[in-house]
Design a protein that fits this description.
- By secondary structure, the protein is α+β, with helices and mostly antiparallel strands.
- It folds into two domains: 125 residues, Impact, N-terminal domain (Ribosomal Protein S5, domain 2, 2-Layer Sandwich); 59 residues, Alpha-Beta Plaits, CATH 3.30.70.
- It is built from five helices and eleven strands.
- The strands form three sheets. A five-stranded antiparallel β-sheet has the order 2-3-6-4-5, with helices on both faces. A four-stranded antiparallel β-sheet has the order 9-10-8-11.
- It is elongated, with a radius of gyration of 22 Å.
- This is YigZ family protein.
Length: 190
């Protein structure tokens, strides 16, 4: 499974209609939709599809045809996301009608092609289940620890400064196992 980390877009023209596809992380879906509706007030349709993993590692998916004939835009867009094994990702396709009707087959093809185009031109990352882990260190050990975490591409979600420093990390189980071997002995894993 794969996901996108940042928003990308591509434009497809089909018989004078313009299809602008935006691919983004699922957690940015609502804000992107709001922004696109204000940036494109004359657009005819805002078709979308998204897939994400819930807390139980189940794939939740949804789509909307937004006024296009039923099953000609949202579902084909969702099928392209599923076919590319994308999760925690959303796609919004803005359509400007060009005056020529595409028919149901033409709409399915155009929306699918627009989503495939934006996926092909996006930087996809392989999905790995992340866990949260807390490390505790002394103030004088912080810079060395941050350097080590940076070298291992481990994300620091937050830092809490009390008598010691607590770092909340987001990492894979494999990264945690590797980190345990490389940590100085006085740094505690909570």
């Amino acid at each position: 499974m794969y996901f996108v980390k940042e928003e990308t877009n591509q434009t497809l023209e089909e018989k004078k209609s313009k299809f602008i596809a935006y691919l983004c992380p699922y957690n940015q879906f609502d804000s992107l939709m709001k922004r696109l509706r204000s940036e494109h007030p004359k657009a005819r349709h805002f078709v979308y599809a998204y897939r994400y993993l819930n807390d139980f590692e189940q794939v939740v998916e949804n789509s909307s045809d937004d006024g296009e004939p039923k099953g000609t835009s949202g579902k084909p867009s969702l099928n392209v996301l599923a076919g590319n094994e994308l999760i925690n990702s959303a796609v919004i396709i803005i359509r400007y009608f060009g005056g020529v009707k595409l028919g149901t087959g033409g709409l399915v093809r155009a929306y699918s092609d627009a989503v495939n185009l934006v996926i092909k031109n996006s930087n996809l990352k392989k999905y790995e289940k992340l866990i949260t882990q807390v490390l505790e260190c002394e103030y004088n050990e912080l810079s060395q620890l941050e350097y080590l975490l940076n070298q291992k591409n481990i994300n620091i979600k937050s830092k809490e400064f009390t008598s010691n420093i607590s770092l909340e990390l987001e990492l894979t189980k494999e990264q945690l196992d590797e980190l345990k071997n490389d940590l100085p002995r006085n740094i505690k894993i909570k």
